[in-house]
């Protein structure tokens, strides 16, 4: 007798699939991170001299790339297991930090090493956070 209450209706699932939107935070957080990252990349490359078009272009491209990657990670993060999700966060952070350090004209080993250290830290912290919060 209660079967009709347990069965989902066809109309509700299709209507929900058509009206699926991104939350404001899904757009705002990658956008803010991309803008800050782009400004910081251009600031590092400027090195105290006058701003040039190349530095502005570098900051713009770096900010757009990071914002796009953050948005993509945000879209697929719920479908990933917590170990892989923590690894994705760590890899994204390691690449971002390594690129910023490479803009300071230091050695490749220093930028790669610092990126790996920071990425490993983010991996550990995000795994701990995800492991203790998920049920």
Describe this protein's structure.
By secondary structure, this protein is an all-alpha fold. It has helices spanning about 5, 10-20, 25-45, 55-75, 80-100, 110-135. The longest helix has 26 residues, at about 110-135. It is flat. The relative contact order is 0.10. Residues about 15-20 have low confidence and may be disordered.
Essential attributes:
flat, mainly alpha, 135 residues, 79% helix, 6 helices
Task: Report the major sheet.
Answer: none
Termini Cα gap: 33 Å
- Shape descriptor reads flat
State the assembly state of the protein chains. single chain
Q: What structural class do the secondary elements suggest?
A: mainly alpha
User: Helix tally?
Assistant: 6
Order of helices and strands: HHHHHH
Mean pLDDT: 87
Total beta strands: 0
Beta-strand content: under 5%
Q: Could you list the spans in which at least 5 consecutive residues all have pLDDT below 50?
A: 13-18
The radius of gyration over CA amounts to: 20 Å
Helix coverage percent of residues?
Answer: over 70%
């Amino acid at each position: 007798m209660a079967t009709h209450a347990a069965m989902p209706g066809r109309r509700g699932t299709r209507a929900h699939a058509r009206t699926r939107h991104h939350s404001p935070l899904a757009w705002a957080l990658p956008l803010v991170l991309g803008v800050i990252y782009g400004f910081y990349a251009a600031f590092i490359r400027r090195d105290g001299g006058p701003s040039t078009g190349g530095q502005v272009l570098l900051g713009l491209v770096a900010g757009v790339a990071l914002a796009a990657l953050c948005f993509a990670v945000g879209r697929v993060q719920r479908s990933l297991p917590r170990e892989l999700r923590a690894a994705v966060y760590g890899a994204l952070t390691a690449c971002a930090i390594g690129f910023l350090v490479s803009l300071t004209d230091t050695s490749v080993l220093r930028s790669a090493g610092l990126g790996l250290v920071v990425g490993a830290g983010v991996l550990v912290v995000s795994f701990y956070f995800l492991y203790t919060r998920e049920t």
